[in-house]
Structure prediction request, 464 residues.
Amino acid sequence: MRAYLRKAWLIAWKDLVSEWRSREIFSIMAVFALLTILIFNFALELSSVNRVEVAPGLLWVTFIFAGLLGVNRSFAREQDQGNLAGLMMAPVDRSAIYLGKLIGNLAFIASVEAVTLPLFAALFNVAVPVWPLAVPLFLGTLGFAIIGTVFAAMSVNTRLRDVLLPVLVLPIFVPVVIAAVKASSTAFARRSLLEEARHWLGLLVTFDVLFFTLAMLLFDVILEE
Amino acid sequence: MTAPPLIEVEDLHKNYGLRRALRGVTMRVAQGEWVTLFGPNGAGKTTLIHIIATLVRPSRGTVRLQGHPLTGDWTEARRHIGLVSHRSFLYPDLTAAENLRLYAHLYDVPDAEARIRALAERVGLVKRLHDPVRTFSRGMVQRLTIARALLHSPLILLLDEPYTGLDAGATAWLTRLLGQMAREGHTILMATHNLEQGLALCDRAVILHRGRLVFDSPRQALSTEEWQAVYRTYVEEPS
Prediction:
């Protein structure tokens, strides 16, 4: 098990180091997220009342589309030098490759969220409830990374990979978006997550566990097909 | 009792949708033998190499490594196979040493640092070990690719068009290195459409054409001119 986790970490490590040096994925995602927030800020005239109601939806739309760019690029980078074949040829369980890529993608998306949230708070004049929001944010981001990593691996060899990824991911991700937005709304309204968003958090946990298990079991087949 | 061939391919078929990339290929590669696989583009060379490399599963037929069929879980078989193609499998933003270390750990290479150092010396990249791969020339990338493929001391080295994109100097260097490896007894299966480079070092050459193995002969059985004549009959045949 230690050897398995070590190999998964190695795969995540090379993604994180490559990204630290090139800033390729982070910069694309961050610029996209910031521009989206800016456009929403100019396009929507929000009162102090509806601002809090709309904020979670705006944030999740931004994170999802920025995240799609990130996971797509993360696998495209594997394909540039045929590196995915290099990983596939190594005597490594394919689920360890998935786990490594998932950790990397999760880190990229989380770092963009960390940059976007303060700007969002400033532009929309909304106080972001950091700790209550952290729970739905983590569970929703994890769910997105789980699904995004699987479908990015599936679409990376196709000619239409940039277009195909959102078409594949978004329909499956709908329940997570709804649950994440609802739970985030509860956090923004400063109400108790445990009392008022328990079922939404439960849905997020169920989704994450279910799809993570499926992805770990099926990634071998997905990569080869 | 004679030892089984290192690689044994039997009645191998591979279909991509309606396209039949391989149509019943049967061949053997003995321990220490260098076999060159010739064929025009689309003949099925890369598909055959990829199946032996465990990257693609065949539609039908079997591949045996040292007599053991590659079925089900290929993880252990992967420890014995090295692949060099025109794509490097290297990460441009990592240094040469980091790339080799990554693969060494993925392959559980014992005493990885010493092995990396030895291979870097062999391919003449010791001074560039700590430079990012993106600063390397194509020839240097190919040297590092060979080091990467040899890290885990594979039983067989698969070469898929390894000369692609190399200039004259890098080509000569690669031929010298591969010649050394052949003399050391490495088992090599190389796919190429370049007759001159392919015939230079091999023990046996085979021709693939439209997914079928159509010619198989020891290198010494025919002169270079005769090989060229045989090759032309397949490659230049009107389709």
Notes: Chain B has one domain: 7-235. Chain B touches chain A at residues 53-57, 75-76, 78-79, 81, 83, 85, 87-94, 98, 102-103, 105-108, 132, 148 (CB under 8 Å).
